Amino acid sequence: MATFLYRLGRLAFRRRWYVALLWVAVLAAVGFGAATAPAASDDASTMPGIESQKAFDLLEQRFPGTAADGANARVVFVAPGGQKVTAADNRAVIEKFVDEAADGRQVASAVGPFQAKAVSKDASTAYATVTYKVKADDLTDTAKKKLQDAIDQARDSGLTVEVGGTALATQPAAGGAAEIIGISIAALVLLVTFGSMAAAGLPLLTAILGVGISMASILALASTFGLSETTGTLATMLGLACGIDYALFIVSRYREERAKGHTPQEAASLAAGTAGSAVVFAGLTVVIALAGLSVVGIPMLTKMGLAAAGAVVIGVVISLTLVPALLGFWPNAVLSRSTRKRGVGKDGGENNGGSRWARFVLRRPVPVLLLSVVGLGVIALPVLDLQLGMPGDEAKATSTTERRAYDDLAKGFGPGFNGPLTIVVDAKGADDPKAAVTTITQKIGATKGVVSVSAARFNSAGDTAVFSATPSTSPTDKKTQDLVHTIRDNRSATESATGATFEVTGTTALNIDVSQKVQSALIPYLVVVVGLAIVLLLLVFRSILVPLKAAAGFLLSVLAALGSVVAVFQWGWGASLLGVQETGPIMNMMPIFLVGIVFGLAMDYEVFLVARMREAYVHGDEPGQAITTGFRYSARVVVAAALIMMAVFSGFIGASESMIKTIGFGLAIAVLFDAFVVRMAFVPAVLALLGKAAWWLPRWLDKALPNIDVEGEALTHRPADTPEEQAGHPADLESVRA
């Protein structure tokens, strides 16, 4: 492996023009494909294997067009204090709104509260529903303005008017100015780490190029593989994160080899052969984690995982080819001022912050280990109370009209009104379908926790009916989840007596089912991902205990991160500091995203840090000295990479959407725990206590495993460059100084 990558890096360095032009051509080709490819249909809502999805499919089959995904707006009217919406003046205003909202080419229907009996018992609140023939993304500005103008006129009359639904909803921002600040901090960290504008800019440039190619490829292949617009979200995040990390590792090793006196070409080749080997296997662990998302059984997650895995692969290939090529164009620009002053061949001495910290841990391994394990364990405790869900309008800021509409409806019609359950009855097997549906409606209506049921509506064939049941509790309340289980658990007797079957669906039931599916898949996902990673790390480090230690450290960091998320976003500890308006269940996809992304980044840090220790050990260092050597050369780069990721992820905390806040906070805190507690404290403490046993491998297994040579041992026995090769790039450090 090391020899192959050494030759690849040398080839890229010497043929830099060809390599650079090749990547520009690739970007142009996929960009053209993305611009000319047809748009793909969005199938992200498909959730096979859960009851609510089966009921939804039956509803589509028996009631064609009922589940259409056109845009909608639920406009809520609240009368001033002491008044009623049924008063003549208020009624006239509402009816005028309905008439104006119905006037539009894209409007399918506009149903007023008095027509649909959508008035609260105390007549303080009412709502109208406007549905459209097209999706929210296809609504014209004219249609949106017409609806907004009608709302504004109703507000001018003195009524409080708020609007929910998709018609006027804005797409959640990913962080805005805060995200820009995060990227700026990342650039500053690179500049401080390398002391060179070129060295700081090169990882950002190559990572952005990789993300551009990845996103263009996803758009070009969207129609072929049914990829939705959201598929690229994870690909962008991981492509940028891993792309910066991988380029950072290779540039850092290049600078190190230059400081030892190697020519630019030789330094680039050695960087590709050593740090490049670590990049390859770090990338493989990330790909394993992302491909493992298919374990969950949700097509959207599978596609997102595979697309992100492709982005990581592109990032790896760019780091191994384009980075050496760019180093060939500017071999000295990436060097720090201190290296320029010292001169080539003088690497600056044995002591730095990394080596001093390593020696501190070596002197006190037991206290450091206990403190890190106990500390992360305590922080992880809240994960025992993890509740998954899908926060809706109730989690938005109170400054948004969607949140105010939600609160007004809950106050006027009860907390469960915002999350009714949809009951689909298949009465094909019943002798008397109408009687069977009546019985089922009465049984569900009498269930504790149900405040009302609507009249059943039959399809044209008369063999299927649908009605709604309104819970007494809000959609995210644990009691609502228990109610759904109760209805399903008690239905066997009703179905036997009536000959009809029924299923529970609707947004609330769907979120409950998806949350349970994700929660039940979390442990198998961890087993598959961590198990495969242990096998891969076994090949990389040729050790039994080092991969097990890496897996244990990852579990500590990810559980502590999940515990922190629960404490802040579910329990409300410090939530106000982050601008969280409402606490509640954690987004159901959050744990899977967190595990996948953090696992990839954690293995990046693990491979790069410990591979350098293994390299020193193989080349003759004692175990303790190997730890110090690894920290001397790698700690600063790992810390810089972690700070960059924390800065980028923290930018998402500035978003207005609670879900995006949760993702940003979870990823940032997970990187903090993994890089600064696990990799910087837990890992060296464990290795210090294990000593030579850390690198032990049974002889029979050592013979059975292929020798991949990640440490670059074979490079120490390579023939020296010929004078012609050494002269291949005469621009060395001394020429720049002169």
Q: In a nutshell, what does this entry contain?
A:
This protein is 62% helix and 7% strand. It has 738 residues and is of the alpha+beta class.
List its salient traits.
five-stranded antiparallel sheet, 11 strands, disordered C terminus
Please state the overall shape, judged from the principal axes of the Cα atoms.
Answer: elongated
Largest sheet: 5 strands, antiparallel
First and last CA, distance: 38 Å
Report the average pLDDT across residues.
Answer: 85
Name of the CATH first level of the largest domain: Mainly Alpha
Topology:
Layout (H helix, E strand, L loop, with lengths): L1 H13 L1 H21 L14 H12 L9 E7 L9 H15 L4 E5 L1 H4 L8 E8 L8 H16 L3 E6 L11 H18 L2 H29 L6 H28 L4 H28 L7 H31 L7 H6 L10 H11 L1 H16 L7 E2 L11 H13 L7 E6 L6 H13 L4 E4 L3 E2 L5 E8 L6 H12 L1 H8 L2 E5 L1 H35 L3 H26 L15 E2 L2 H29 L4 H28 L7 H33 L8 H6 L18 H4 L6 H5 L1
Parallel strand pairs: 5-11
Antiparallel strand pairs: 1-3, 1-4, 2-3, 6-9, 6-10, 7-9, 8-9
